[in-house]
Amino acid sequence: MLCTKYHALGNDYIVINPADAASLTSTTIQRICHPHYGLGSDGILFGPFSSESCGFALHIFNPDGSEAEKSGNGLRIFSRYLYDQGKVGMEPFTIETIGGQVTAQVENKHLVHINMGKIRIDEAEKLTINGRQFSIHPANIGNPHCVIIQDEISAAETREWGRLIEGNGRFPQRTNVQFTKIIDQNNIQIEIWERGAGYTLASGSSSCAAAAIAHQHGYCDRTITVHMQGGSIHIQINADHSINMSGGVTKIAEAVLAQEMLNE
């Protein structure tokens, strides 16, 4: 099975063209994404497929085998893959996901812009887990997010509480979690726990959600740089509540997955 691996600020995905694999089972996805028994990845991008409403359609899978509605880093990577395959140039094009349509544009091999669509922000609320109370800000940009603004954030805290928040009954479909620190009017820092993937170095949709919450509450302007362990993403919040995201993509390798690995 042919595949191509990229990372977007340390958030790595494997692209598999349906021409090289008619279907992917949950077991196959988990095996490919496993860091020891497979190639290792934060997820799989399965496409392109044809679409009645967009230029391309894409399915996004988490390493636990579940399907994600949308992924900002995944969409930038998929856009770069389409560019590398000669399927698009530098003109804007559209991609259909189960979390909605996005518009993409490849500026060059290392910089991709995505209009992620409109974000919906729900009322802030309190969430208590194991005796600790969190002030949470739920949001949805085609996939669910839980933003928590704090004076200080850390990878250790995110690893400790992220899984518990992700699977809390408040979120029947589980959720992505962003611990967020406000730096100034144009900069925030986030630590990320991704639904179905765990602690993650960077996330595009998480950057959109955290930036939108920071802007809504008056902490930040409409133009925000989101700083993460893997690097930075630039966010523009538009008047219609749609969000533009810009960030880098790096190609890692082209590979052939051995059948004996898939058969184990």
Set down the secondary structure blueprint:
Blueprint: E1 2-8, E2 11-16, H1 26-33, E3 44-49, E4 56-61, E5 67-68, H2 72-84, E6 93-97, E7 100-108, E8 111-118, E9 120-121, E10 125-129, E11 132-140, E12 144-149, H3 155-166, E13 176-184, E14 187-194, E15 198-200, H4 204-216, E16 223-228, E17 231-237, E18 242-247, E19 250-256, H5 259-263
Parallel strand pairs: 2-3, 4-6, 12-13, 14-16
Antiparallel strand pairs: 1-2, 1-19, 3-4, 4-5, 6-7, 7-8, 8-18, 9-11, 10-11, 11-12, 13-14, 14-15, 16-17, 17-18
Short description:
With 264 residues, the protein is α+β, with helices and mostly antiparallel strands. It has helices spanning 26-33, 72-84, 155-166, 204-216, 259-263; strands at 2-8, 11-16, 44-49, 56-61, 67-68, 93-97, 100-108, 111-118, 120-121, 125-129, 132-140, 144-149, 176-184, 187-194, 198-200, 223-228, 231-237, 242-247, 250-256. It has two domains: 2-117 and 249-263, Diaminopimelate Epimerase, Chain A, domain 1 (Roll), CATH 3.10.310; 120-245, Diaminopimelate Epimerase, Chain A, domain 1 (Roll), CATH 3.10.310.
